[in-house]
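Consider the following assembly input.
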Amino acid sequence: MRHATTVPQKLYKVLIYVVCIILALLSIFPFWVMVVNATRNTYQIQANAVSLIPSSYLANNWKVLVGKSFNPLKGFINSMIISTCSTILTVYFSSLTAYGLVAYDWRLRQPFFSFIMAIMMIPAQVTSIGFYQFMYRINMTNNFLPLILPAVAAPTTVFFMRQYLLGTLNIDIINSGRIDGAGEFHIFNRIILPIMKPAIATQAIFSFVGSWNNLFMPMVLLTDSDKYTLPIMVSLLRGDFYKTEYGSIYLGLTLTVLPLFIIYFLLSKYIIAGVALGSVKE
Amino acid sequence: MKRIIALFLACLMIMSLALTGCGKKDDSKEGSNSSDKSDSGTKTETQEPVKEVEDDPNVKVLNIWSFTDEVPNMLKKYKDLNPDFNYEIKETIIATTEGAYQPALDQALAGGGSDAPDIYCVEAAFVLKYTQGDAHQYAAAYKDLGIDVDRLIEEAEIAPYTVEIGTNPNGQVVGLGYQATGGAFIYRRSLAIDTWGTDDPAVIKTKIGPGWDKFFEAAEELKAKGYAIVSGDGDIWHAVENSSDKGWVVDGKLTIDPKREEFLDLSKKLKDNNYHNDTQDWTDAWYADMKGVGDKPVFGFFGPAWLINYVMAEHCGGKAPGEGTYGDWAVCEPPIGFFWGGTWVLANKNTKIPKTVGKIIEWITLDSSETGLQYFWANGTLNGPGGTKDAVASGAVMKKSDGTLDFLGGQNMFDVFVPAGEFANGKNLTQYDETINGYWREQVREYTAGNKSREQAIADFKQQVADNLDVIVE
Amino acid sequence: MRRRKGISYAKYGYIFSIPFILVYLIFSLYPTLFTAVIGFTDFKGIGRTDFNFLDNPFQNFILILKNPSFQKSLGNTVLIWTLNFIPQILLALLLTAWFTSNRRKIRGQGIFKVLFYMPNIITAATIAILFSSLFGYPIGPINSLFQKLGLSKEPIYFLMNKSVARGIVAFIQFWMWYGYTMIVFIAGVLGINPELFEAAEIDGASSRQTFFRVTLPNIRTIMLFTLVTSLVGGLNMFDIPKLFQNGGPDNSTLTAAVFIYNQAFAGSYLYNRAAAASMIMFIIILICSATIFFILRDKDAVLQRKLEKKHKKALRKAEKEARRATV
């Protein structure tokens, strides 16, 4: 049986590689175009938006970028503060909530989980008008907190973490911790969090990318140029329609994506190894 | 599932309880707001020609809001020129892309406080909202800033359309610009010689105009030589739009001016007869036509001075005469007068430093001397010699400035742009223009592409306006 | 539960959930409610903070439901989401099957996994601009490719074609998200008890049989999660349709979220109508998600839970009766 299928099996394997390589090229393509455009000047880009061959205007574009009235380094730091804080809050509190949902037997556990599933369905955009009005009224504009604090309540992440814990959490670990006299918070911080590392890494990527690329809310909430994030600065380069510096925009986009890359590749070993999500029934 | 729904209903109840509380708070806030407004309302009722104003000595910061760094940079220059200007300039720049500038500016104006803008810039696409539309109540009359506006407008020879747009419903000037955006027809000299044996602007303007009939006669002659008269229908749109007698919305009702409706036929005629290359403005193919490498060589473009300096000169494929189409261009009067784009500078009615703000605004928009901003702007010397020359709002400044450009084969562009401003019409704008123009041009494209009948295109256009805007459609 | 012997840890369940609930109440619930309430008011125009409830509180809702553009945008949203989701989930499943198969070791699968998620890193604005210039007319990379290959003589105005425009938006969504879906699926498969696979192998099941009989049923929860999150994301699709063609051509890529945005910001500041439309969308999403939950619910588990409940009730009853009897 197995011998008979070797030839089609081999063909099938070739097919797999062909599909994977095409998909991989499709993934690299926009990044390549972006990096190449960072080395071209505005007029080359406007005449021919997509090119695979680099040009020689990288230094020029850099000059335009740093010659603006804002400081890209400052934007980088602001973006880092917002994205790092919100990512930490998301993964920590989502893990905590998920642990509370899995490890303890409490009366409102099932309703609370249903509640999380329900609010997962509320689209964020729908409420953005209300959110903005609210932040304006309580004087939270030009403040990073409205961009960071909401990260504590991330229903999707809680769901993911809960599934992970259902698959990996062993009640004996908790009990042995308790026998050693450790408090519940101590058990969570010292024993459970390390177990959750792969799930945390995966969710950290998703959450960091989302926060880093977020443009609309920061743009509306942060009007002080000292508080601008990197994506706001890049969008400012588009400024007036007849004076758009496309070369430096692409350079800015490339620089924006660079930290994401670094973080993504640092954490990607968990994506490669995979995270086991429990499918245990509720 | 029942549980989820039950829980949800419970939440809704809690929410509604919480809200009634919040609603009350809103009311009280509204009360204080309206009293603010009535205060400032009484201020403007004094109808003296020029008002003596004083600054609040405790304020040391000047807030400027803009969508590019153009005006903030002018303020820096002003600070350099006036060493006694001891305010800290706090600039807020939000791009108009992504649509974030207006919501943020609106909130800042409505919210007031020390972060509220003292000076703010608005673009032609939405200027009407801030001078005559929903947000006009925030704009200070130039007179109330101590500017002798009527005398200066005359002295500086500001084009009427700029003043019309910058005048609020009470007849006070609240905003003016620094750039002149009156439009011209910018054409290729070599194609003109090949077709008519001359490239003299005085002759060419009689070939392509006045009026669309002459324009299409010229298109036919150019076609015989294998040339397109324009790149796409977007090129003639700005001229059509601005030549109409009425704007899109009159007394809250959608109005299709016959001249704008005619755009359907003009566009169809261009497409059916192959008079253009069927490009869309701001796309790759449009830029290619500036370089002369499109499908057919394109004779000309409709545009103001900024189109020449910031767009065409960069896309012509060269930097000196003989390279690409550089130097092969000239400007003449268009078949129909129009303007396109521009920035208006407004001051907040509630500014604590009206005197300083007034001085700056006067320097930017009305100072026609050789130390005024516009003189630097026209001659390209704001940041040292050799900068980009541009048409400016003041005709008086343009008359004493040198507008010769190598790009135009040595022609002085101000010869055309000073009168161009006179023909532009500032009375047919509305605050909905950006959105409605988008819908209109899209439906015109559907019609000219043959996807729809003329009636259907108009009907769909009306439907889109009715669906998305608070405008009565009959 | 307190009746049980030993220390009760139940209170920690509450304590650990407090931060989530607090933040949710402040930052999400209030804005949601605010949005819900202004749907019933005359709140429109800028610089206003006051509003009154309408005489007919449902007026905005009726206006929106009757609005032809809104109806069209709903149809577009569902169509584009379906066009993106079906291929996306199929490809993600296929890749999951390939990458988790014990028999076929795909070399370089680590790199592939990492690369497939990458389109999600880049901002939507960049991708939208990239695709509109790719399909440029009359000059553009795809057009010149078509002409070189002899597929067309005249340049084609791709973006004037409604189906093409919708197809491109669906493709971009598909391409940006299949990697994410794949990562989540792989995570689900890795969580399946390995003994199940071993048993299947011993029984002589082919890889296809294993996939359909063992893998798929066991990642049902994860599939549910993917389906619901994708539905929520898909019905709120905004960035790409807005930035790609601004809902055009002729409203063919106008999604509900773009419609809502236009109500609020396209010139008339109809916050009340935008809020009403948002709430309608929310109800639609709720109904869709509920339907999915109902169809994909784990029937055995539900049954078991019901039995448990019954059992508990019976126990309590018995306890009560016993107590009464002793009194």
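Chain C has two domains: 69-294, 297-327. Ask yourself how this observation constrains the way the partners meet.
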